[in-house]
Each structure stands twice: as C-alpha cells, then as structure tokens.
Design goal:
Largest sheet: 7 strands, mixed
Keywords: Hydrolase, Magnesium, Metal-binding
Structural class: alpha+beta
GO molecular function, one term: metal ion binding
Strand order of the largest sheet: 3-4-5-6-7-8-9
Number of strands: 14
CATH architecture of the largest domain: 2-Layer Sandwich
Cofactor: Mg(2+)
InterPro entries: Inositol_monoP_metal-BS, Inositol_monophosphatase-like
Bound molecules: adenosine-2'-monophosphate, calcium ion
Protein name: Inositol monophosphatase family protein
Order of helices and strands: HEEHEEHEEEEEEHEHEHEEH
Length: 272
C-alpha cells in the first residue's frame, strides 16, 4: 500500500475510532437492549450495531471501493481478502460491556491484499489506544512498545486462556492443559480477545490461547502484536485464515515451541 494513502487511511481510522468511543462513553449508562445470538451467553446490544453501522457509513462515504467485514453484518460478505479490507469488531467483549461497563474494545484492522497494514484496538472506557502500522512499530497512545523479551521461561509466563481449556472439550485433553496451567506462572481471562492481544503486545502477559475466534476478534491484534515480534498461528502452528474462524496461539517464538508441543501432546480432533 502506498505510504501516503496508508497515512491518510490511518488518520481517518483514528478519527472514527475515537469518535465511536466517545459516543459509547456518552451513552454508557443509557438503558440497553440486549439480545442473544448463538447461545444465551453470546450477547449483542444496540450499541454493537450502532457502532458498526457508524464505521460502515463513514468508510463507504469516504472509500466506496474498500470492502468491510464486521461482526454484526453491516459490511460485505467476502470470499477473498483482495483489495483494501476493513475488519471491524465494534465492541469486542460485549459481555464485559453489558455486565461491567468497562474492559471492552473497538477493534479495527485494515488489510491490503491479505496483508495487515494498520491495526487499532481502543480500550474505550480507559481511553487507551493501541495502534500500529506494518513495519513502523506498535504504540500504546504515544508510547512506542518495546520488542517482546525472548528469554521468557515457560515457568515465569502468564498466559491468557479461559476455563474451557480445563473442562472436557473437543480440542485438547483437559488433563494435559491442567498440567500446563500448573507449569506456568499464572493465567488471566480478560474477556476481550482484542485486549488480550493488546496486553500481550504490551508485554504484561506473555501469550494468549483461544479455541475459536472470528476474523474481527483478531484482525487488529495480529497486526499490533506482530510489530513487537509476536507470532500468531492456530494451536497447531498453521497460518491464520482471515476469512474463517481459527483457533489461536499468540506468543513469542520461544513460548510458541513449548506451547505447540504441549497442545500436540493433548490434541484430539481439529473441529472448532
Ligand atoms: P465479542 O465480545 O465481540 O463477541 C471472550 O468472550 C472473547 O471471545 C471476546 O473477544 C468475544 O468477542 C469472543 N467471542 C467469539 N465468539 C464468541 C461467542 N460465540 N460468544 C462469546 N464470545 C465470543
Ligand atoms: Ca459477539
Ligand atoms: Ca469479538
Ligand atoms: Ca463484538
């Protein structure tokens, strides 16, 4: 992507994400309509829809030739990542938004022919923006994030992962994962995949492992995490497909070897 155009898109994206966040903060205490999607704990609110629709309107007005993939369906149905594609999660961590009124993010990743060029993760209530342009480093607001330490020992690692790994599940033997969590220093569950990527990029956690995430959960996170030397693959070590759901392992190269071999030991089938 031409660097002048990329800077222009970055400036617009930054302006829209701050504007969308301001709108959410203003309305945070208004009554909410909460619906469910795939299961009773899979929530969506009017604010998820309003925010996605805001981005789609702005993008279509300014860049009619760009494609959009959004969780709530206001974007396009894509069969390829050709051209410029905005991958948007208007509220990542909707359960946190509903129950906690904090700990959620707006996530926007911008791709050119399948390559991640610009990533934004906006922690709305804290008013903290994680952002990156490919090959220009990752930032938390105005502070450049240092490259990840590569001498992390697995016994000193904090890994973000939810309880499903420790319950009987289709992917990995829970006893192998129970042994794994006793080996590492600690676990965290933030409830927003985008924030988990942002915190891994910041180095306050050392990795993140998830059983199934959609493109909008990870599109910005992968770009930002990559800029500090982080790697993201499926739990089998294969590349991420930005048009489908994927299992996710995000960490540094040293931990990647160790975690991939743990997962391999307990791996059952490849159904998500
Ligand atoms: P969401 O809040 O945008 O739905 C923790 O639940 C993380 O997993 C969040 O980033 C959440 O994104 C994502 N997630 C993906 N699929 C989900 C589902 N079916 N139900 C709840 N959370 C889901
Ligand atoms: Ca959702
Ligand atoms: Ca999400
Ligand atoms: Ca969402």
């Amino acid at each position: 992507m031409d660097s002048n155009l990329r800077n222009e898109i970055y400036t617009k994206g930054l302006q829209w994400i701050k504007q969308a966040g301001e709108n959410i903060r203003t309305k945070i205490n208004n009554p909410l309509v909460v619906d469910t999607k795939s299961n009773p704990n899979d929530l969506v609110t009017t604010m998820d829809r309003e925010t996605e629709s805001f981005f789609v309107t702005k993008i279509k007005e300014t860049y009619p030739e760009h494609a959009i993939v959004g969780e709530e369906g206001y974007g396009d149905k894509l069969s390829s990542m050709d051209g410029t594609v905005w991958v948007i999660d208007p509220i990542d961590g909707t359960m946190n938004f509903v129950h906690q009124k904090r700990n959620f993010a707006i996530s926007v990743g911008i791709y050119q022919d399948g390559i991640g060029e610009i990533g934004f993760i906006y922690d709305v209530m804290s008013d903290i923006l994680y952002h990156a342009k490919r090959n220009e480093g990752a930032y938390k607001d105005n502070v450049k994030l240092p490259s990840l330490k590569t001498d992390t020992n697995i016994t000193e690692a904090i890994i973000a992962m939810n309880h499903f790994w420790l319950c009987p599940n289709k992917l990995v033997d829970e006893e192998v994962m129970q042994h794994f969590v006793r080996t590492i220093r600690g676990t965290r569950v933030y409830g927003s995949a985008a924030l988990e990527f942002a915190f891994a990029a910041e180095g306050i956690i050392n990795g993140y492992i998830s059983m199934g995430l959609s493109p909008w959960d990870i599109a910005a996170g992968i770009i930002i995490f990559n800029e500090v030397g982080g790697v993201t693959t499926t739990i089998d070590g294969t590349p991420i497909n930005m048009l489908e759901k994927n299992t996710i392992l995000a960490c540094n190269l040293v931990l990647q070897d160790e975690i991939l071999s743990t997962v391999k030991e307990g791996r059952k089938s490849d159904a998500i």
